[in-house]
Design a protein that fits this description.
The structure is a homodimer of 251-residue chains. Chain A is α+β, with helices and mostly antiparallel strands. Helices cover 28% and strands 33% of the residues of chain A. Chain A folds into two domains: 13-86, Winged helix-like DNA-binding domain superfamily/Winged helix DNA-binding domain (Arc Repressor Mutant, subunit A, Orthogonal Bundle), CATH 1.10.10.10; 91-246, Chorismate lyase. Chains A and B meet through strand 7, strand 8 and strand 10 of A and strand 7, strand 8 and strand 10 of B. The first copy, chain A, binds a DNA duplex (19 and 19 nucleotides) through residues 1-7, 22-24, 48-50, 58-62, 64-65, 67, 78-84.
Chain lengths: 251, 251
DNA sequence: CAGTGGTCTAGACCACAGG
DNA sequence: CTGTGGTCTAGACCACTGC
């Protein structure tokens, strides 16, 4: 095939409708859309690079660049000699991508969770704002106590748009919620943004965590975004940082 | 030139001494070493891709991959149509790479600093451990009060190995310390790792920041690493997060 | 052994910057 | 106009995996 413009004057008519971004960007977005649609199951293998290239009518190098980008976003996992796979929300990935609390001795460990309550209510103002919900929207609220190494250290409040999670019930709640969202509701969390503050633990949380009034805690306000860009979960975690810290690499 | 093994069986004898990593990795490390040696001044332009490729005896694509990697690490800046440049430690870069505190209204702003003291002392146990110093080593200690939008919000204590910063004196201390390290001492900070905890502000810091006893603060413990891997600076910042938060993107 | 991703090369053209 | 990085293509061989 003759070289084509990098800005997109391709011969294939289907590609012309995509737009004027670089071709590998367009390929990335097409693959992203198919991932969001669930075209391949979690953990499933994608077609090989030459197969995708032929299917999309671009060169293998262009497909490779798109796949590399999606792998860098932790949406795909590439394994030499085996293939390219849809990333799963297993504990390893959560620990690597979404969990930044580390014991002061350096151990990264996935916390245990005890669900204290699952309730339904109309979304309050903060929930509406953070999740982008209408004033009439309803949410599930989950309250959990989390422990690390047997020590209670996180009091957590979670809000989920009710419309996205039909039939959610307390006994279905596993420790790894993102795995549940993916497997039961086809919602794949792709990224999250966190805002951290230092606060004095509110009395309820202090009691829950078994510490005195006036104890400081790290408040982590996390908004989780799905692969299609929807705001899926708002989570407020108050963490005791006496034996833990939040690790952040500035690279 | 004939294709060569990706594991490195190159013809050029100089390259044979590098090792068995991928060629683009080897090229990245050679360029990194030259950056660390100060072969090009901060803000200076590197040779063009074809020139580097000819000089190193590899294909332009391989050089490109190495340059892209260094640009992704914020050590180089690539500008289409102009060239590839050594990244400078200007306020924009600091704000982008090293400063995570954001006003709750969303503005990212570089804080002002007032130096309260610059002293010299033998390194204490924590300084020795964090900076990897011998028991006999000496350090500079800097104490600063930092303000954002006119509001005092950060009490900061900094420790620097005395051996790395000969002649450091109080009147030479600018607001942007990383710029000083680079320009006056040829030390380029490449990355940093931070550990965050929630604490009760010690009385001295509370007085300095003009808040009452028992006020919670975000303690940011940062170790800054130079481009050659040396531990250069240990910094402990205690931040009031009443109108600020620490932003962290989980991608 | 066949099939996969990983690396390396070579060369074309485009977009952008600045003289 | 020249020179730069950015994109796209094409094809070779290597390294790893699992049958």
């Amino acid at each position: 095939m003759a070289p084509r413009s990098p800005s997109g004057q391709p011969r294939a008519p289907e590609a012309a409708a995509i737009g004027f971004r670089p071709l590998y960007r367009q390929v990335r977005e097409r693959l992203l859309r198919r991932l969001a649609e669930g075209a391949w199951p979690a953990g499933g293998m994608l077609p090989s690079e030459p197969a995708l290239a032929a299917e999309l009518g671009v060169s293998p190098g262009t497909v490779r660049k798109a796949l590399d980008a999606l792998a860098a976003e932790n949406l795909l996992v590439r394994r030499q000699g085996r293939g390219t796979f849809v990333a799963r929300h297993d504990e390893r990935r959560i620990l690597f991508q979404f969990f930044r609390l580390v014991s002061d001795r350096g151990e990264r460990q996935f916390p245990e969770s005890e669900v204290l309550a699952l309730t339904r209510a109309g979304a309050n103002a903060r929930e509406q704002a953070r999740l982008g919900l209408a004033a009439s929207a309803r949410v599930f609220r989950i309250r959990r106590l989390r422990t690390l190494g047997g020590r209670a250290c996180i009091a957590e409040s979670i809000a989920l748009p009710e419309a996205l999670f039909p039939g959610l019930s307390e006994r279905t709640l596993p420790n790894n919620l993102y795995g549940l969202y993916a497997e039961e509701y086809g919602i794949s969390i792709a990224r999250a943004s966190e805002r951290l503050k230092a606060v004095i633990l509110p009395p309820g949380d202090a009691t829950l965590l078994g510490v005195g009034p006036g104890t400081p805690a790290l408040a982590i306000d996390r908004l989780a975004i799905a692969i299609d860009g929807r705001r899926v979960e708002w989570r407020l975690s108050r963490c005791l940082t006496r034996h833990l810290h939040y690790a952040s690499e500035l690279v």
